[in-house]
Amino acid sequence: MSELETILLRRDEAGVATLTLNRPEARNALSVALMSELDSELARIARDPAVRVVVLAANGPAFCAGHDLKEMRALQGRDEVAAVFALCSRVMTAIVRLPQPVIAKVHAMATAAGCQLVASCDLAYAATEAKFATPGVNIGLFCSTPMVALSRGVGRKQAMEMLLSGRPINAGTAERWGLVNHVVAAEALDSEVASMARLIASKSAHTLKVGKEAFYRQLEMGLDDAYALASKVMTENMLAMDAAEGIDAFLEKRPPVWRGC
């Protein structure tokens, strides 16, 4: 098995695809190879109707330490540096654009682009011991790309505090600020994430897809345009087969049988 096959692991079970960052010796730093694997795997998942939910996890003492700084320092010239940040942005955007919901399972420290990775996911669960930081300012490199996801996940002043100070916040603060949904004991993290993943996977894949897409599109709109989009999406959703089945099942007091359309 090659390095490219081992730095990112995938396990599928009952409609849930778990992607696990597997560079524990490098604190799961986002090397070009790892980001390329993530990019490719997300593209495959987007085309896989059997996958209803994605869980993003990591092995080792950290969730993700951000970019691989040794690799970054070895880059030659503007074009090589720009290509790395373009790849990173593509991966983060792919998570947001993915038809399936993505849950971050954060067991430990997530810093810089690792924090960006968490903020880009639709949901995030964290162990009590987890911490989050955008510490680029400490080494003369403002976390500008992590800023995009972070500023869309927490309040402006909270995001600026993290970006300007570089100080880590604990899991409880991350929960209060909205960066993560729930904080649980480390030993309960797997079961809590699995429970939520199973719950979401039980829903109509078609409904999840149209709803997730509409959620992110309307965030960037003014109020009138957002309601116009939402009304259009709900009209199309209402006419879908899964909506008819869901309503009939509710009225008939039986479980729905989703068709994915």
TrEMBL record:
InterPro entries from the UniProt entry: ClpP/crotonase-like_dom_sf, Enoyl-CoA_hydra/iso, Enoyl-CoA_hydra_C, Mitochondrial_ECH-domain
The keyword Zinc-finger is annotated on this UniProt entry: no
Pfam families: ECH_1 (PF00378)
Keywords on record: Fatty acid metabolism, Lipid metabolism, Transit peptide
GO biological process: fatty acid metabolic process
Domain of life: Bacteria
A GO molecular-function annotation: hydro-lyase activity
Family: Belongs to the enoyl-CoA hydratase/isomerase family.
Role summary: May play a role in fatty acid biosynthesis and insulin sensitivity.
Protein name: Enoyl-CoA hydratase domain-containing protein 3, mitochondrial
